[in-house]
Every structure is written in C-alpha cells, then in structure tokens.
C-alpha cells in the first residue's frame, strides 16, 4: 500500500514532501468470533478471619470478535478481581484478561466483545474461618500384655470455613472409633485419616489440600509409659543475668517411665522438667542434663539431656 503525506495550513507556494518508506505492507485477515467461558482470578488478601468462597462471573460467557489468528490464539478468558481487606460478600467490578496458549496476556486493542456498558463483574462469597481441635477414638484390643496409652495427631487442629451460624455450631471435629483399629497392636502405629467425610454439613476446609491428618496410636507394655515432652516445657534455673538461653528447635524429649500401671495412668510431667545452669557462665553450645521430678513408685528408665545455646544479651 503506497504511503502519501498531506501538509495542511500552508497558504500559497508549493510544498514538496517525501515519504520514507514509500510503501507499507499490511496483512488482511477474515474477522472471526467465538464464545468463551469466563473463569475468576482473585488477587489480594481478605480480612483476617475470612476466606474467599464461591465466585461466579456476570456474565458467565463472553463473545469476542477479532482477526482469525488472534481469536484462535485465545486459550483462557479470566475475570480478575481484588479481594484485599474484604470481609463480606460483594459484587465487584472485574478486569477482563485474555491469555494465549503460553499463558501470556494478549493485546485486546483490535478485538471487541459483547459485554456492553455493564462490563464484567464477579459475585464474591466471603466465608468465616475458625480453628477447631480434632478428636479420635480407637477400637479393637492390643496384643496380650500391652495396653492402649493414648494418641497424638498432627496437625492438632484444623482451620474450617463456612457461614457464621454453621461455624458457631462446631467446637470439635469428631472421628468415629471404627476408623482406627488396634487389634493385635504391640507398639506405635501411624494412621493417615482423611477427615473430609467427618465435616458437618455446610462446613469446608479453609485449605482443601489439608484433609489428611496423621494419628499416632500408642500401645505399650503394662507397667511402661512413654511421654513426649517439648523442650519449651523445661524450666530454666540459675541462668546468669547477662546471658540468653535457647533450645534446639523442633526437638521433643522422649521420656520412658516404669511402675505400677495405676501410677502411670495418672502420671503428669508437664511441669516436672528443669535444667540448672549455675555452672554455665559463658556463651556457647552445651549438652545439659535434664532433671525430671517423678512421684514415688515411678521410675525414669533413662536420664535425658538437652542441647542449649547461651548467648550474651544485647549490650552485655
């Protein structure tokens, strides 16, 4: 296509123009249209204690016109909304984003659509969230000479979501006894439990992938009891005023006790552990003996130790 130039606003005389390049190459394509479903992409973080629930677009589909090559390159149509600070269900204006097959946003300047003056919006449902503990039962009978001493579960609680009135009615998620069987068990057993079937109606997990809970069932010989005590429960005595103490993170002490079963059944050592640092006067890392106070009739099979680090206080 030849390119010409016109100079306006010049009275009289002659004007000479030269255009470089003299021609422009253009590509002409047929116009094509297609209809697409619209998905939602929520950005931002809602207000604490809330989570985004169901999201629907208005309209749910869109018709787009453009060149044949551009229309055929549209891979996904997205309504993008910002839910920052949101704490109640709302209809929000949305931005229309077109993505090609490589996941890159597309230029829409030479396309048109049928959204009209109302544009694109998204109905955003906001749900309340809540942390609740989990309760597990067990069924069956351990091997002869062994008794059931309890269980632990990780995580110890889960975050659920739903309408406020549904959440208020839930204080715990209970899993039936029949799910965990300890017939013939003569030691610890880890069981992975999917808790989704035990959620009340109207309640969902805040994180849909957090449905598996690891339950450790503890069975021990009669007259023996094992207790895991977190290092944070250890009392620190006689620490120098110019020093700080820290424990090796993520470590629990495993304490094994023997004695009469009736004494072991009521044994509680949550506040019985302590370390004495009167002989530790300089910064460093040390292995320190832990003192465990146990009632008469109960014996600790092995004296535990813990690794600590002493550092100088700021300005020390």
Instruction: Summarize the biggest pleated sheet.
Output: 6 strands, mixed
Strand content: over 45%
Mean pLDDT: 91
Catalogue the unreliable spans.
Answer: none
Distinct helical segment count: 3
Shape: elongated
Secondary-structure element order, as H and E? EEEHEEEEEEEHEEEEEEEEHEEEEE
Whole-angstrom Rg: 35 Å
What's the count of strands? 23
Helix percentage range: under 10%
Report how far apart the termini are: 82 Å
Q: Please state the structural category.
A: mainly beta
Structure description:
- The chain is mainly beta and 316 residues long.
- 5% of the residues lie in helices and 46% in strands.
- The protein is built from three helices and 23 strands.
- The strands form six sheets. Strands 2, 5, 8, 10, 11 and 13 form a six-stranded mixed beta sheet that branches. Strands 6-4-1-3-7 form a five-stranded mixed beta sheet. It has a three-stranded antiparallel beta sheet with strand order 9-14-12, with no helix packed on it.
- The longest helix is centred in the N-terminal third of the chain and has 6 residues.
- It is elongated.
- 13% of the residues are buried.
